[in-house]
């Protein structure tokens, strides 16, 4: 009996050690603090003001994942990529990460429970952190793209904090869905202009191979450099309207199981759609919200991507500028914030391996922070969907 109890204690100690620093694990409630006596009555735990303190995404713990806290494991990491030197119209998305964090301050004010999805991602047992920003030079695009790739890949190839566990239905052990057989953490990148998705997809490829992409945007972003930007140089040929063309050329996208949503851009001509077909994408036009509605759009997306691993890229300009004006290339006739959030919740159950939100340029926002708030709330839905579905499958 004694031996069993010693063994149990030893095992418990191993489990606790394996889970690392308890302060990082104990995230909830995020905005509750225990102040020492002169600041607050002794021993009393109180809700911290949601507007106080250093701003991280949703007040998550800040971990310096790329520098001195490389050993702190996580399941989902937010990381900024403040890059905007490949934009065609209004610059300013380099301030996106800081703006989105400011817009996210209130996400956990009431605890963070997502009613329609019936999950609290902040209390799901996952270790979710804000890694700050990847250092990105504003002087050399080629170098910056490499920095984003290296930063993303470094995080992606760490071992996830939580083991995959068992399938909730069959009770059978889950195994990773990655190509390299590893249980990777998930990265949610705060852009940055949309160009950052090329280095991110190169990183994703290293773990998952060619990936199905769900892309919400008013624009195709598969344009050939000769059509978008004119391509006077190699550097100019890679920009926020052509990165998917290059991703497709490099074989990073799973042809036929990828899809755009909220498309409403003008074109150089219908041949842009032929080019988009060749890049591997199906399309949902923004105006389809009036005919098939959110349910029809969700069905189209799910029918296209199937059950495999998915990368999710959200351009804030998929939302109508009435709701999200602070972006580089706004297009009227878009979806409301509510409609995009409904569609994102419709992705419940998909294996979203990583995601981003891009093209948030806070300088053009209203004083009420409409756009950064919309970006943060959209990511709350993404985080909730991720928290519900582990990146594992039952082996046949
Ligand atoms: Mn875009």
TrEMBL record:
Catalytic activity: agmatine + H2O = urea + putrescine
Residues holding Mn(2+): 194, 217, 219, 221, 315, 317
Signal peptide per UniProt: 1-18
Coiled coil: none
Pfam families, alphabetized: Arginase (PF00491)
One GO molecular-function entry: agmatinase activity
Top-level enzyme category: hydrolase
Gene3D superfamilies found in the cross-reference section: Ureohydrolase domain (3.40.800.10)
Top-level taxon in the UniProt lineage: Eukaryota
Family: Belongs to the arginase family.
Protein's name in the database: agmatinase
Organism: Cyclocybe aegerita
Taxonomic lineage from the root: Eukaryota, Fungi, Dikarya, Basidiomycota, Agaricomycotina
């Amino acid at each position: 009996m004694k031996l069993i109890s010693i063994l149990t204690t030893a095992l418990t100690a191993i489990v606790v050690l394996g889970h690392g620093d308890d302060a990082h694990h104990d995230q909830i409630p995020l905005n509750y603090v225990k102040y020492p006596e002169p600041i607050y009555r002794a021993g009393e735990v109180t809700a911290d003001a949601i507007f106080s303190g250093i701003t991280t995404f949703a007040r998550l713990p800040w971990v310096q994942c790329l520098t001195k806290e490389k050993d702190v494991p996580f399941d989902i990491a937010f990381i900024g990529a403040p890059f905007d030197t490949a934009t065609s119209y209004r610059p300013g998305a380099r301030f996106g990460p800081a703006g989105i964090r400011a817009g996210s301050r209130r996400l956990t004010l009431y605890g963070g429970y997502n009613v329609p999805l019936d999950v609290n991602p902040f209390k799901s047992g996952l270790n979710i952190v804000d890694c700050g920003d990847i250092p990105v030079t504003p002087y050399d695009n080629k170098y910056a793209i490499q920095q984003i790739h290296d930063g993303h890949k470094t995080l992606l190839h760490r071992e996830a904090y939580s083991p995959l566990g068992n399938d909730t239905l069959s009770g059978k052990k889950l195994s990773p869905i990655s190509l390299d057989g590893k249980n990777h953490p998930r990265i949610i990148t705060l852009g940055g202009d949309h160009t950052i998705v090329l280095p991110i997809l190169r990183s994703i490829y290293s773990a998952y191979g060619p990936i199905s992409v769900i892309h919400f945007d008013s624009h195709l972003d598969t344009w050939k450099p000769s059509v978008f930007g004119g391509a006077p140089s190699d550097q100019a040929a890679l920009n926020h309207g052509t990165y998917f063309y290059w991703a497709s050329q490099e074989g990073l996208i799973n042809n036929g199981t990828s899809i755009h949503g909220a498309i409403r851009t003008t074109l150089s001509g219908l041949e842009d759609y032929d080019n988009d077909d060749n890049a591997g994408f199906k399309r949902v036009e923004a105006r389809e919200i009036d005919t098939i509605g959110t349910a029809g759009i969700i069905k189209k997306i799910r029918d296209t991507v199937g059950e495999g691993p998915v990368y999710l890229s959200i351009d804030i300009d998929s939302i109508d500028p009435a709701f999200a004006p602070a972006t580089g290339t706004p297009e009227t006739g878009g979806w409301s914030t509510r409609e995009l959030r409904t569609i994102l919740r419709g992705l419940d159950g998909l294996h979203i391996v990583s995601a981003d939100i891009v093209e948030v340029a806070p300088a053009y926002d209203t004083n009420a922070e409409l756009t950064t708030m919309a970006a943060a709330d959209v990511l709350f839905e993404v985080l909730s969907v991720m928290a519900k579905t582990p990146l594992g499958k039952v082996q046949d």
